[in-house]
Amino acid sequence: MANNGDEAPELAALGGALVVNMGSVTLEAAANYVRAAQAYNACGQPVLFDPVGAGATNLRREAVKRLMTGCYFEVIKGNESEMRVLWGELNSQQKGVDSGISTSSDIDKAALAMKLAARERNVVVLTGKTDFLSDGTRTYAVKNGSEYLGHITGSGCTLGTTIAACLAVHREDKLLATLSGILMYEVAAERASVRGDVKGPGTFVPAFLDELANIATLAQKPDGNWLDQAKVERIGIKEPDSA
Fold this sequence. Notes:
The chain contains eight helices and seven strands. It is an alpha/beta fold. It has a seven-stranded mixed sheet, sandwiched between helices.
């Protein structure tokens, strides 16, 4: 939770991954984010960017420009509106951090994730009722989750940190690491939502955290059956031309 980029070189040397979350941003903060990400880039440690509310204000659009040009992100995660801003649709206006009502088809969303990933040479996660992830060549849809996730604060932050934890321990294939993190998160939400002690968003949060911890334990066992609930689909889209 460090906000000072000058701390990053020491923290990066310890290993792990960095999450750059643009939840509360100023141009000074954006400069700190760039310094932190550059320190992790220099150490070869993975960095995840969550461009929260990227299209909500001009300040946030400017911060996105600085971050996208100043460092490299192994993974970029955000909703459709945020991804459209990163792609260059500067007229994409957000109401706060929410994506708003989408008129795009699933194929359109998958294609957006794929072409942004191909341009940035990384993994892009476009979140929503269905999550789409791509490395510019391979593209998947994940259809797990719970409606409760849209009724609590911090759910996107939790997904970002879960993915980052997987990136930190599996460097060989960042798309696979990202998919693993999404599935752990979404299946945990699904399991929590059907528990008898969950009556609404307030009781969902602790149940969700418990289920996420349970899955983290099960994932370390070869016979863990939690993946039986995974709803993953490979999306066939023509690979975009290289930039």
